[in-house]
């Protein structure tokens, strides 16, 4: 397959990935708000715990809905690797944002979303693509 065809195929999946991302974002943002704003849990610990919940939900929805690929332990492990690397990027960004911005903690996870979402889409599309027959 040519590179341009591969890029086009990935881009056609972007709306589905975005819809799944919106669903996962609503769940994770709601959880972050409750935990950080109302229960005053620690920022980084909360971010990591909520991220693990989001990874599971995202893997299932993206496998089935976005990439039409079978659920498998191997793909799940790769997906977790993608999201764990993204979480690491997010943690670094959170530390930077917390040092330079004066907003409340519950807002900071929202600020890392654009970067981590693009990271996740690109690498997820590599590992979850449907195998050609």
Total discrete domains: 1
Largest sheet: none
Q: How widely separated are the two ends?
A: 13 Å
Q: Structural class of the secondary elements?
A: mainly alpha
| Poorly predicted spans | none
General shape: elongated
Question: How helix-rich are the residues, as a percent range?
Answer: over 70%
Overall mean pLDDT stands at 86
The tally of helices reads 4
Count of distinct strands: 0
Share in β-strands: under 5%
CA radius of gyration:
16 Å
Order of helices and strands: HHHH
State the gist of this model.
With 133 residues, this protein is mostly helical. It contains four helices and no strands.
Q: Can you describe what's shown?
A:
There is one protein chain. This protein is mainly alpha-helical and 133 residues long. It has one domain (3-127). Helix content is 81%, strand content 0%. The protein has 4 helices and no strands. The protein has helices at residues 3-38, 43-66, 73-100, 108-127. Helix 3 runs antiparallel to helix 4.
Q: Key features?
A:
about 130 residues, 4 helices
Spell out the blueprint of helices and strands.
Layout: H1 3-38, H2 43-66, H3 73-100, H4 108-127
Helix pairs in contact: 1-2, 1-4, 2-3, 3-4
């Amino acid at each position: 397959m040519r590179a341009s065809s591969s890029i086009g195929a990935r881009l056609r999946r972007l709306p589905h990935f975005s819809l799944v991302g919106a669903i996962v974002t609503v769940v994770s943002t709601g959880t972050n708000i409750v935990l950080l704003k109302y229960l005053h849990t620690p920022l980084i610990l909360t971010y990591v715990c909520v991220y693990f919940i989001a990874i599971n939900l995202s893997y299932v929805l993206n496998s089935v809905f976005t990439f039409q690929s079978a659920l498998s332990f191997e793909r799940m492990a790769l997906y977790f690797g993608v999201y764990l690397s993204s979480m690491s990027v997010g943690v670094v960004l959170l530390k930077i944002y917390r040092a330079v911005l004066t907003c409340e903690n519950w807002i900071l996870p929202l600020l890392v979303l654009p970067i981590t979402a693009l990271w996740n889409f690109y690498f997820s599309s590599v590992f979850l693509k449907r195998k050609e027959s």
